[in-house]
Write a structure and sequence with these properties.
Length: 225
């Protein structure tokens, strides 16, 4: 997410420091100690300004939610939301999801949310897509077997690509829809999702059941300019 540089960013980060985990690797395998009575550990990749994050944490007080966001300007807004709502079950980290196995232990997560990731439309950038089989392999090592990946996007080509990747990895897909809100709002929306739904853009969503799998070989594809 691109945002203008905040002149008072450091002060705002300090004011919300109780919600920020500065050394996430130190919590590998022990995340639940942040909320010993938690019923589940959920992780959200790319939380942006935190609308979905805060509302999900508020609606599920028995869950520990860890939100990942690389843009500090967006993350501080999300942390301020959590702080303003008095939430005690959500924390934020700044990390590259490619390093997820350095942060979370094998099978440590119960659920992973991937909401509206960068589609990386050019074929030569396919490996950067967060639903590429290389990432799926990492997710299925850190999400417990039988745990789920909840995936949403407004980008139809990315969704179709993702469904193919799930199938190639032998992963079960449940509750697949290409128009989530066709008959009315379903679930908690992200801020981005609200804007695109208002414009009439269909929202694609599915749930993927995690399990160990053998990473399929890449097929050679023609580079798209």
């Amino acid at each position: 997410m691109r945002m203008r540089r905040m002149k008072n960013l450091d002060a705002r980060m300090e004011a919300t420091s109780a919600y920020r985990i500065t050394d996430p690797a130190a919590h590998k395998g022990t995340w639940r100690e942040l909320k010993p009575d938690c019923a589940a550990l959920w992780v959200e990749v790319g939380c942006g300004k935190g609308k979905f994050t805060a509302e999900t944490a508020q609606a599920n007080p028995d869950v520990l939610l860890i939100a990942v966001e690389r843009c500090r300007e967006a993350m501080v807004v999300a942390m301020e939301k959590a702080q303003g709502m008095g939430l005690k079950n959500v924390f934020f980290i700044d990390m590259d999801v490619a390093n997820i196995e350095e942060i979370f232990a094998s099978g440590e997560m119960d659920r992973l949310y991937i909401n509206f990731p960068d589609p990386w439309p050019r074929k030569k950038n396919a490996k950067r897509r967060l639903t590429h089989r290389g990432f799926l392999d990492k997710y299925c090592r850190t999400v417990k077997e039988g745990g789920e990946i909840h995936f949403k996007t407004d980008n139809a080509p990315l969704f179709e690509y993702s469904v193919e990747e799930f199938a190639a990895c032998g992963l079960q897909v449940n509750n697949l829809t290409r128009d989530l809100h066709k008959d009315g709002i379903v679930g908690i929306m992200t801020g981005y999702e609200e804007k695109f739904h208002a414009l009439g853009t269909p929202i694609n969503r599915c749930e993927v059941v995690c399990k160990p799998f053998v990473l399929p070989k890449e097929e050679k594809k023609t580079e798209e300019e």
